[in-house]
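Q: Could you write out the predicted structure for this multi-component system? I'm mainly interested in how the pieces pack against one another.
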Amino acid sequence: MKYVKDLVCISCGEKYEASPTQYLCPKCGEKGILDVEYDYEKIKKDWNKQDLKANPDPSIWRYSPLLPIDPNTPKPPLRVGGTPLYKSNVAKLLGVETLYIKDDGLNPTGSLKDRASAIAVVKAQEAGMNIVACASTGNAASSLAGNIASMGNEMKAVIFVPSRAPIGKVTQLLVFGALVLSVKGSYEETFYLSQEAIDKWGWYNRNAAINPYLVEGKKTSSIEIAEQLNWQMVDWLVYSVGDGCTIAGAWKGMYDLKQIGFIDKLPRLLGVQSEGCAPITQAFKNGTDLVPVAENTIADSIAVGKPRNYIKAIKAVKDSNGDMINVTDDEILNMIKILGKNTGIFGEPAGVAGVAGIKKATENGIIKPTESVAVVVTGNGLKDIKNAEKAVGAPLTLQPDLKELSQLLKDYNF
Amino acid sequence: MKYVKDLVCISCGEKYEASPTQYLCPKCGEKGILDVEYDYEKIKKDWNKQDLKANPDPSIWRYSPLLPIDPNTPKPPLRVGGTPLYKSNVAKLLGVETLYIKDDGLNPTGSLKDRASAIAVVKAQEAGMNIVACASTGNAASSLAGNIASMGNEMKAVIFVPSRAPIGKVTQLLVFGALVLSVKGSYEETFYLSQEAIDKWGWYNRNAAINPYLVEGKKTSSIEIAEQLNWQMVDWLVYSVGDGCTIAGAWKGMYDLKQIGFIDKLPRLLGVQSEGCAPITQAFKNGTDLVPVAENTIADSIAVGKPRNYIKAIKAVKDSNGDMINVTDDEILNMIKILGKNTGIFGEPAGVAGVAGIKKATENGIIKPTESVAVVVTGNGLKDIKNAEKAVGAPLTLQPDLKELSQLLKDYNF
């Protein structure tokens, strides 16, 4: 916590000491989302690009001066971060000249959320707690369970999932030894139950919107992009949006780098929601407060009818002079195929929603063909095989017989 | 191909020019598996540990001097290799003091086989072919499909899978745009059909046992371990064994490093098969030729009743003064849980079979408690959720109600 000054409420501006369990501004309640403030001058004195270049650790901990942790707290051993960034040949297909795709599905438990959960494991220890809980549609859950598991038997994860969560995600967190509670209700109801339980039993709270430290983990995804691009940022940075924390974190990463002089240019943010659940886009476009909506989309990881970090998300998009856009489930399924077939990257529906948003944004004139774009595929497609099946169908079936194969290839015009 | 001298038949010793399509020794037929020979003296002159350390590329291509490729051939863009090696806290649980686990499930398509498929994509181009085919229980297939996809529309993968392959693996390769042929038959029949088709239509052959170059890709898994251990090799190197290529490759990597002076000590190999399909262990133990067996195991990625690279595999284990051992399906399922719960690593059944083998080998006195061990988890657990479900069961289910939760936690002794 060497470089952390305080926590500031994004609604009223009140400042608080950065204790591990200071989750919200008590004055503003649910809207009192806190933001970590750093002493950038001090960081600039102690840390520069050369120090970073000389650091062989590829994980998120290489950015420790910009993380709200005590350097001495034990870190979960999983290698979180350091995911590849590809200059992609689908740029033209999506309507731009230059496109970079970061495959965050290659994080240890298969999603970007490992970046937040790793921080949660550290902060829980700093709070003296060994049980960490969250409500999640899946990835926050499995990343927490996996990172907790990597600590051995020292800590325990309690996970609340809505019963609609895909079996792959639930199985993964059972494998990681978490106590899994499948709640017969919406994400909303699941979330409130987790809050009640956390209050009642005094567990550490890994609900990303409520916990100001987790966004700080998520910001490493955009910081990594900047480093991988040798600090020359693209014109647009694109993320899918559910609860709002990831895109808010991405902006925080850019802001931090600008403050310490690692980058000159800030990108514009494009936030992409699913048409079947787009309350943040709606609030952004209408300039109104958030109106909760139903959760009707296959992209379960961003299906959040009442997102909790919409204020930070909308502020981030506005501050960046960015935009919000929605994509349909069909566009998402189609993008799973386009991306898989042309790049060898297999994303889950929410994971590729951002990429689908680029296509739509170039068609709508939001992103110009000459502008450069970076996008993060936020979760691994292996997490949601059922929806991928919808996208691609079944294989050709045949007997082990060369004649049958010849006929099949002929029919297939191969 | 700057450092490749020739191909040598491991059965008769005949040497051949290293052309991209020299698959087998024509004199020895199926037993005429070829091995790539390098000019180690030349490599030693041109390349040292410092060169390697200075190379920022974390992928398998950092070991190019030890790979049978023309450095100028375009490489598939996916970042293959550079997977994490963890010093593991499950060492004691498995009966040893020091254990390192490499998570190769974090390769781009989720398995170690990316290492071989990346080489196949390069060699096909060197042969002037743009269609690459293989028969596979899944991972060789998806890794080929993914690496081919990353080349854009320049190449095409044709994949023969036995119809028992898990849906997750099949869906993944359909996502990657491969032509997938699901064969109603055993792996054996599937393999022969692929061979006939490859001969008939002149496709490039990615069947690992038949193609001497692919083992050279697989060897990067053990070379990486050596580099990650700062060239101080462990006493035992453990791999699960199906067709025999992976463990043969691992040994080749060790042999190469010894020849060029990067390591002093060679590890002993422990090969682990599934009790329900263990023809290589049988041949190794009995000192007989291989007798094909049925394929009765949940570990589909190593369920190979008639393995094709058993000669190279058995030679590797013998040359290393190593051993072979079998584990049951129950031991494999149990190890999915142990590994997940204690390390946050989620492996598929074949992926954790090697780890289960360590436990058995320490119990049997093959591996001593004071000896150090490294093992590779060869595939991601998300690829085979159905078997993981068998290992872990279902989550606790409840209404969104705090009272019900209190009762549940009490019943659960939490």
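A: Regarding packing and overall arrangement: Residues 85-110+214-392 of chain A form a domain with the Rossmann fold fold (CATH 3.40.50.1100).
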